[in-house]
Fold this sequence. Notes:
By secondary structure, the chain is α+β, with helices and mostly antiparallel strands.
Amino acid sequence: MSVSLLAIVALVALWGQSVLFRRRGLKRLDYRRKFDRDFCVEGDMVEMQEHIVNDKALPLPWLRLEALLSSSLQFVSQENLSIATGARLQNHRSLFSLWGHTEVIRQHKVRCIRRGCYDLETVTLSCGDLFGISQSVRTDRVNQRLLVYPRSVPVEELPLPWRGWQGEFAVKRWMVEDPYLMLGVREYRSGDSLRSIHWKATSRTGQLQVREHGYTADRRLMILLNIAEKEDMWAEVNEEALMEWGIRCALTLVEQALAEGMPVGFGCNAPTVDEPETSIRLAPGAGNVHHKQVLDAMAQLKLEQQVHFAEYLRLEGERLEESCDYVLISAYKSPLLEEQMQALEEQGSKVLLLPLERERLAGDKHQADQVRPGSPDDQAQAG
Length: 383
């Protein structure tokens, strides 16, 4: 056989195998990816499982998987896995061979270092022939979500005003007026709510008269977080660590109230991932289901201001129908906020402002560093 004929046969063979892999390489190739749970707490280690099935006789000389994930999900180093990490995103690329009629299960240990809602949406699969002449590319949707809840903080680390107010509130919650239990009418005293004025009795006697109510144990609490670090902040948060600390403080207050059997709600002038046009507000409730709803909202909370906090408080006052007390968590205090706080108090609510103290961030950052991987002991434990 002549050299030219051999060359022609070789070229035809190269062309044929190239066409074969280009047309059939990604056929009957199934890829799935999932976490071992739907939610966890920041600092936890979870497992991500990849399931690849080549359901055909044709082997794949090389198969490349690529996915874009958040940098807050830190992967323990593994073979055949290349990770290029940026400030917020990381690109995962793995390369391996796959025989025909083969099923491969790959498991990755992942440390969730930050609160958030992490959607794993797509993965790109690429394969080609033996000599790299051609390749096929396909993008699959995986639609997996992992919610990373914030971690609560010790009660003694909460801002000082809460420690003094906590005991007072614990007593007063059993001694609050019931607007539906009317005992009579009495003269107005300093500190009485303007809403309690009895205008007919006032007109009859010529002196301000107020309704006198009985008492009930049904007192509710709302924890409201101001996502803005200063009054003139634009949409996005710059001091992210400060706001993450505020979220943890809010969670601690919610969980403490729930532990005492007190109906508690959570609100924030920020949107969630699923509802980007609406500020967060969960009405007071109790029980495990309500607790998980609060955690879900906090995990999905976006660090951007949807509405000014003073306006948020004004709207809160308009929707106030039952007795409710408020704990406000804010990095600043302003005349506008004080005006709205006073308006809530005039409606019969007790209002406490907890300042977010920037000097506490150093200690909180030290605790956060302790849950980040990097030491040989961490990797050995994860593996």
